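Question (not urgent): is this output format expected?
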Amino acid sequence: MKLKFCGAAGTTTGSQHLLEINGTRILLDCGLYQGHREDSYEVNCCFPHFDPKEIDVVILSHAHIDHSGNLPNLSKQGFTGNIYTTFATRDLCQIMLADSAHIQEQDTEWLNKDRKKDGLPPVEPLYVKEDAERCLRQFVTMDYERPMPVADGVTVTFFDAGHILGAAQVLLEIIDKEDSGKKKRFLFSGDVGRGGNEILRDPVAVPDVDFVLMESTYGGREHELPTGSIDAFGDVLNRAIRRGGKILIPAFAVERTQQLLYLLNQLFHNDRLRRIPVYVDSPLAVNATEIFRIHPECFNDTVYRFLFDESDPFIFDGLRLVRAVTESKKLNDVHEPCIIISASGMCEAGRIRHHLKNNLGDPRTTVLFVGYCADHTLGRAIRDGRDVVNIFGKPVKVRAVIEAIDSFSGHADHSELLDWFHRMTGPKKRVWLVHGEPDRSNALRDALANQHDGDVDVAVLGETVEI
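Got this back:
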């Protein structure tokens, strides 16, 4: 059995890990690498570490674009096998992959205008909406903790990862015919949630694991606040309202937006926040909120009971869901305090960029970050305190108040990752760390090495290891 690290090694995007088992090539995740435009295109377009035609099976941990976003391109370039995932992940991918295609088509159109002026040939998007739709025909869905044979001698079982709706830890039970038919249990963590999420269930402790492929996004770093810090959220919003300006919240359309809506509902309902208009200005987030309602199997007990006993946990008076571009543009004419939740969370795409361009220069504006921003993204530049940032190729002065709350992160922090690891039973003979910037992965490796007898290594992009 061989494991090759094809993405999310030394970085937090582009999750792709290739297993060769009993002559079958299984790809764990097929995400987009996100970074500088030219670098991203080169990495994403060509699959430098494998031939898509030679992949037999894909197993998808969850719907985030850095884990699922290159699936249409994979199929476009010759992959014809099944894509196994959970029911909720498939439903989210239906809207998220189409949205990703739309963004790429738009970005390519803008880029080709500049290339034409410079006398350069046009470039093509990685894939278009039709490619995204065709890719979905290859999805095979299954519930948590329901074993499913996926290849010769390989059975997959999904366990709740508590990260976003439908997110799974992927357990592969393997009869290794190249090693005298020995049985092995290989766990891919996907992205591990924190536990105590306002909406979702806690990550499940998987039993009897031999080998672990583990994310390390927050290795060596602790979140400033525990989950469920509604008081801190309310305090930031009340301060921002007193400034009299708009409150811009860049938020991932899936899970983070719904988490915010649930907490705003609670704050307004309990009179802990002055009622002001709330706009969700993201067609993707609006669609995702509708999908959340049809997957109560992912909800924790509190939200599950609220959904059936009370009312919709994500809808309240004063909330306006914005789909049309014309309605989005009208928000420029709103001058009283309001909350605008808009994607993307890292400010690399979507309508949030327009709101930032129009409002960053106003000292009454508050920009509240509620999630992780990777290196080289607009969100990271703003969070790091840059005085001037580039938006749509033009410099924009930053006079707004910048706030950040880490309690909303969907990723387990250092201590929570260690707790997740130790709750998992079994020998865990070998551990490989992926999905982390080098300092994060190294910090988690050192901590695990001090507490665990098995081998712990940081994955190297392009490296193949024998298991």
